[in-house]
Specification:
The protein is mostly beta strands. It has one helix at 40-45, and strands at 22-27, 30-35, 52-53, 60-61, 74-77, 82-84, 95-97. The model is unreliable at 106-112 (pLDDT under 50).
């Protein structure tokens, strides 16, 4: 019996533009690869089924409008900067968190 935990199934599957340069980034402490020109949303959903969990219900969220209007895809950089995953272009070495740092923090700056 294998003791290796399989990676979660990705929400997105890339079927075109596979020849672009590779970009490394860190998602919730795990180093991953995406392609140059990907948005954070694309890069995240190429590796897992959701972008984050709702701060209100803890249900998974994968973005809604995909054009930067709905506020559903907020994530944070490790320094605390809020990033809209659907409209932020991935950069080499980005360090992204999809979960609040603590149970008392939420994506709206702690306000509840």
């Amino acid at each position: 019996m294998s003791t290796v935990t399989p990676l979660p199934v990705a929400q997105f599957v890339r079927i075109a533009e596979t020849a672009r340069a590779s970009v490394s980034f860190v998602l919730d402490g795990v180093e991953l690869k995406a392609l140059a020109g990907d948005t954070l949303l694309t890069a995240i959903l190429m590796h897992q089924q959701h972008v984050r969990r709702s701060e209100f219900s803890t249900k998974p969220r994968a973005g809604f409008c995909l054009i930067g209007a709905c506020q559903d895809c907020w994530v944070r950089s490790e320094d605390g900067t809020r990033l809209r995953a659907c409209s932020t272009t991935l950069r080499e070495g980005m360090r992204v968190l999809t979960q609040p740092v603590s149970d008392t923090e939420s994506y709206d700056g702690g306000a509840r």
